[in-house]
Amino acid sequence: TPGKKVKQQVKAKRRGKAEAEQAQPEEGGLGDGDFEPPVPKKTKKVKEKRNGLVGESDASQQAVKSAVSSSVTSPAAREQDSDAEELTEEAKEGAFSNFPLSQNTIKLLTARGIKYLFPVQVKTFQPIYDGKDVIAQARTGTGKTLSFALPLIEKLQSVSQDGRRGRAPKVLVLVPTRELAIQVAKDFKNFTKKLSIACFYGGAPYKEQRNGIDILVGTPGRIKDHVQNSKLELSSVKHVVLDEVDHMLDMGFAEQVEEILGSSYKKGSENNPQTLLFSATCPRWVYDVAKKYMRDEYEQIDLVGKKTQRTATTVEHLAIQCRSSQRAGALGDIIQVYSGTRGRTIVFCETKKEANELAMNASLKQDAQSLHGDIPQKQREITLKGFRNGVFEVLIATNVAARGLDIPEVDLVIQCSPPKDVDSYIHRSGRTGRAGRTGICICLFQRKEEDLLKQVEHKAGITFKRVGVPSATDVIKASSSDAKKLLEAVPPSAVDYFRKSAEELIDEKGAVAALAAALAHISGAAHIQQRSLLNSTAGFVTMVLKCSIEMHSMGYAWRGLKEQLGEEVDNKVSAMRFLKGKMVRWPSPGSAGVWGFLCVHVPPVCAGTEAELLRYWYRVLVVHYPCSVSF
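That's the RNA helicase sequence above. Prediction below.
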């Protein structure tokens, strides 16, 4: 009826308006200036099953849906249509029809949300399928595992299958860590039902070869043990893959790899197995060592090239100065602001002891578990599975989780100190910003580690954005936002049980005060501790003094403060720093020019409250040192 149609139209408009409001990005942090941390980039999650290696970015998928569903020829709609056409153009090279993929493989790819192949997969598929040796370098998170998995699967499935029990493997994939071995084997299993996949690593039972193996994935140590004990036969291997080759051919693995491949390779023979080397970083020495296993003519595929930036372009890199003694307390605030209560975060530590201590840190509002080499293999697998499935939100790990692991939708990576090996930073930061998603990587550093930070910038081709540790205002705002989302998720049936208590609280405290207290408790922000924005020290407030006099050195600034505040100022003010260079010449009062800034941090107890502290400093300094003070 006409009446029903009108109601339906009204409801549709309301839904559209609500969706538009919901899609608006969250508001940035309060205030401005260099001390305010930038708002983390959030992408609207599309509930679609995917493997985290290949697929369209969330933003691109939304653009395509908008362009397809809209029949309005407005400028906005035409712009969306243009975006859709651009995306289609990008996807043309990776269309399944361009490659010898079986219908079964295409169905399995589509079922996992993969619409087309990524550039590294496009470049490597045909050379690998044709049997050529390949060295491939691409940034982390671009789908390197499928780059060799898909063509090898299709190659093996295109020939008649050997179904004999106890058959030896045709494909050998060597990887540096147990976790990566498990993941690579899983990726193979996801895209073939005909081939037998086995995974050998320390702590795993040996039983797969009894029924025969087509593709074997494993760590060098475990594979070498089985070969030496005559439990594994590799004479039939036709394809060898070294994943994370820079680490695989490292001094610790080179000897093991040579022992494993010794029986399969003969110098100068054209009958040697096809050799495939993959990694995000390929130093020059890797190519030199790799020639030992490769034919004279091999394909070199480099998707990084001479580009300065070696990390993923979808990752934003931030640096926060933080003393080691304050690191545990600051981590909770950093994770809360940049990832939220429900976001996934990986924290990288240098030692197993540090990983255990941080995992038990009471300041973390999110559930956290540690992952390192001392943890039994079975428990490591359970931990990784729990993190992938969202059972807990924070994984605190050593380098064991840095290479190759693909954990979907990691919002934030934190490195507790700048690594001395720049390649380690590249691999660690690559755990976020994968498959088109955006991510944030934060590197904590002490003042004495600034040279290491600059070294990472230079060699990785990135620039860290220096930010302060999140302020109390940032933490409260992020906690409140998470608490509101939790309230929205409460079903109406559960609300009814608490109505009477809610009414009593409203009568007693008032609606706003009662709800504010509830939000503070839910968010875990009932007790907020002030932190210095300069070095994350707890119990300090950072102040910026804008001066209009000439200051020749830091000592001059200290003398000026002592003259006005007394010698005891040493116990109240610390971490003084010029924000515009070491020696600053300020414009004289009333003259034009850029104002300089002097930054200090002081304990709030000096003057009771921030407001009183502000008035105190302004009253003392405005007479003798014309300047303004701000937080």
